[in-house]
Amino acid sequence: MKKRVLIVEDDPDIADLIKLQLVELDCDVDIFHDGQQGLNCFKAQHYALVILDIMLPGMDGLDICKAIRATGSSVAIMMLTAKSSELDRVLGLELGADDYLTKPFSILELVARVKALFRRTEFLRVELDRASAVQVNTEKHADRQINIGDMDINLRSRSVDIKGKRLNLTAKEFDLLTFFAQHPGQVFTRSQLLDRVWGYGHDGYEHTVNSHINRLRAKVESNPAKPDYILTAWGVGYRFVEGL
């Protein structure tokens, strides 16, 4: 089945170039040059991927990303921007973007990233289908709940509570926490986390993992400096507590 991709980019030449590459990947592509029009189209269609420029007329890409995540959609989102500062990069990811490319970018890298996002989406779909097929006997399992210490993770509602208090996590923070919780005690390098959670491994993007770990700890740990859940494996990476 062909994947449908939405491109919201105000530069027609860039939009057409990206579309050309996606068509080669057997995708159906819709292009909008206005932010609000692009968001309206997203709400009316089902997409496997949304590619957003940040600087757009009508509504900027960050606001579109935030609005998409507010609907509860887990669609893959890639941000494109001429801004290259770390603050801009982290802000895009904080709002729920899955990947980020700074212009000018390599077409080969764009295609590789798109393929990685598709692989990750397919992996999550298969995992969800597998979980749905598991026969369960209790209401807790029917809700696909993970309980560790005072933390309750509900995979169906994509919500996390600690001591009964609901946490406000971004989509990527939830994915990262859930991945850790499903592999307690196992140590993962930053590159492995990029591959398993973000869907790609790429030198120079380990800071993405670091920034997400720091923000996640600030939300789930009573003392982020001495974490109980997300532990550092010095010189290697991170692991999730087991037997809490």
Question: What are the defining features of this structure?
Answer:
244 residues, alpha/beta, Rossmann fold, Arc Repressor Mutant, subunit A, 5-stranded parallel beta sheet, 4-stranded antiparallel beta sheet, 9 helices, 12 strands, 21% strand
Task: Provide a descriptive summary of the structure in words.
This protein has a five-stranded parallel β-sheet with strand order 2-1-3-4-5, sandwiched between helices. Strands 6-7-8-9 form a four-stranded antiparallel β-sheet. Strands 10-12-11 form a three-stranded antiparallel β-sheet. It has 244 residues and is α/β, with parallel strands linked by helices. Helix 8 crosses helix 9. It is elongated. About 5% of the residues have low confidence. The chain folds into two domains: 123 residues, 3-Layer(aba) Sandwich (Rossmann fold); 104 residues, Winged helix-like DNA-binding domain superfamily/Winged helix DNA-binding domain (Arc Repressor Mutant, subunit A), CATH 1.10.10.10.
